[in-house]
Amino acid sequence: QVQLVESGGGLVHSGGSLRLSCVASGFTFSTYLMSWYRQAPGKERELVASISARGRVTNYADSVKGRFTISRDNAKATVYLQMNSLKPEDTAVYHCRNPYKDYWGQGTQVTVAS
Q1: Is 25 exposed, middle or buried (0-12, 13-18, 19+ CB in 10 A)?
Q2: From CA 7, how far away is CA 20, in angstroms rounded?
Q3: In what order do the strands lie in the sheet with 68-73?
Q4: Which neighbouring-strand residues pair with 47?
Q5: pLDDT score at 9
């Protein structure tokens, strides 16, 4: 059974930091690119960041470049999203995803207060 379980969301003030985690099971995590997406109320889902299977290549949305860092630990089947200098516009539900298999986690809420 495939599972992606996110954690680490919460309420922070503008300029604060959060670290999201996504623990995967039920598939060979280390062989797949993984991504973080977010969806704010009334907005379309947005690709935030991606990381290659071995972690050597990362990509970011322009809106988070320089503030967010995606990483992974294949031994722990976990992908992370370190979010610094958070802004109110970062408020959203954040999901991790295996885009090749279209596996999604249930999401974790991030709220940034001004």
Answers
A1: exposed
A2: 6
A3: 3-7, 18-25, 78-83, 68-73
A4: 37
A5: 98
Residue 31 confidence class, pLDDT cut points 50, 70, 90: very high
How far is residue 31's CA from residue 114's CA, in Å, rounded to a whole number? Answer: 39
Structure token digits, residue 36: 């973080």
Tens digit of each residue's pLDDT (9 = 90 or more) over 11-21: 999 999 999 99
Widest pairwise Cα distance in the chain: 40
- The dihedrals phi and psi of 38, each to the nearest 5 degrees, come to -145, 155
Handedness of CA 78, 35, 13, 62 (dihedral sign): positive
Question: Residue 35 forms beta bridges with which residues?
Answer: 50, 97
Alpha-carbon gap, residue 17 to 85, rounded angstroms: 6
Q: pLDDT digits over 35-44, tens only?
A: 999 999 899 9
